[in-house]
Amino acid sequence: KAGVTQTPRYLIKTRGQQVTLSCSPISGHRSVSWYQQTPGQGLQFLFEYFSETQRNKGNFPGRFSGRQFSNSRSEMNVSTLELGDSALYLCASSSRRPGQGAGEQYFGPGTRLTVT
Amino acid sequence: AQKVTQAQTEISVVEKEDVTLDCVYETRDTTYYLFWYKQPPSGELVFLIRRNSFDEQNEISGRYSWNFQKSTSSFNFTITASQVVDSAVYFCALRGERTYKYIFGTGTRLKVLA
Prior knowledge:
The complex is a heterodimer of chains A (116) and B (114).
Chain A: E1 5-7, E2 10-13, E3 19-24, E4 31-38, E5 42-50, E6 53-57, E7 64-68, E8 74-78, E9 87-94, E10 106-107, E11 111-115
Parallel strand pairs in A: 2-11
Antiparallel strand pairs in A: 1-3, 3-8, 4-5, 4-9, 5-6, 7-8, 9-10, 9-11
Chain B: E1 3-5, E2 10-14, E3 19-21, E4 24-26, E5 32-39, E6 46-52, E7 59-61, E8 64-69, E9 74-79, E10 88-96, E11 102-104, E12 108-113
Parallel strand pairs in B: 2-12
Antiparallel strand pairs in B: 1-4, 3-9, 5-6, 5-10, 7-8, 8-9, 10-11, 10-12
């Protein structure tokens, strides 16, 4: 099976712009989560989607949003970029359904976003 | 509130030494799940193990072993006879059945020197 794929791998944006990142989960996985990884804050949970519905959300401002499509692919969007949004954004997929306990997550290689 | 503490920021060992990475967690959920992930220099997190709160059996997988102790809220990870390829950042993570969010520790950077 192909792993989790994320595009683009690298991105440079200017403050104030907006950006959309894409994630394709492992085939058959319907749960997709997003994380932000920075040296200072570590890995922080952004949100989780299952069957096109947001199931859980981390403590990030409304500038961070996401969605999931019927084929389980997911996108996250960050509007009005700030310098502090520079980070590695990781996507993870899982085969577990809500209510089936917490399954292991399989991570993609991440998108390295640099905001200048 | 949920919390995962990995007090060891960085550990350096010489190849073939054994090393233990500590993980202490906090949760109010009675059912929860603990994980270890490895992040090599390439950047992609790799799943290592998942443990349920109701299963305190320790696990061994090759050179890796995990010691889960609910009494001390710890889920420690030991690498026996470490190798250079074990050099990576290791993350411990927690997900509560009710809180439903994955919480990661800050990671422990392991350097295995030849």
